[in-house]
Amino acid sequence: MTVTQKPDFFTKRVFNPLLNLLMRAGLSFRGSQILTVRGRKTGKRYRTPVNPLSWNGDRYLVAPRGTTGWVRNIRASGEGELRLGRRNERIHVEEVPDGAKVALLREYLRHWRWETGKFFGLPADPADEDIAGVAPNHPVFRITGG
Q1: What is the rounded CA–CA span in Å between residue 54 and residue 142?
Q2: Is 32 helix (H, G, I), strand (E, B) or coil?
Q3: CA atoms of 33 and 24, how far apart (whole Å)
């Protein structure tokens, strides 16, 4: 089952454009960056703000809203670009299996619950079983390099 939570009007028309503007200027809040991926059908470049997670020596992209457009596109290509200001980083990714997501999602929520916690529908201190139950709805990609 594909789960996607679309952004509300404020997020789509105010919050995300403001974040994109700040990140294009080189300003990031707690590590946020702009992810650019090519459309799997159109080839058009799509940009979206993301919150990369650094954990245990690796970096990850987590999709708090589920299987969104950027998720489908990066699954198809296996690559994208992270941008902050003038710095662009070409990345390759591999998807993390559901069974390996619990600790990653717990860490992601520790950093980003204030912004994205509502999309997970979990209590403040969820049990591992609770996180495992929602893990299939939230794709996670390990950044493997450029």
Answers
A1: 10
A2: coil
A3: 9
Name the phi and psi angles at 42, rounded to 5.
Answer: -90, -25
Nearest CA to 141 among 89, 88, 80?
80
Domain count along the chain: 1
Q: What is the pLDDT of residues 50-91, one digit of tens each?
A: 999 999 999 999 999 999 999 999 999 999 999 998 899 999
Q: Provide the residue range defining the domain that includes 111.
A: 9-145
**pLDDT tens profile 15-52:** 667 766 666 766 566 678 999 999 999 999 999 889 99
Cα 123 to Cα 35, 36, 101, 112, 127, distances in angstroms: 29, 32, 17, 14, 9
For residue 44, is it within any domain? Answer: yes
d(CA 42, CA 86): 26
Residue 141 in domain: yes
Residue 3 domain-assigned (yes or no): no
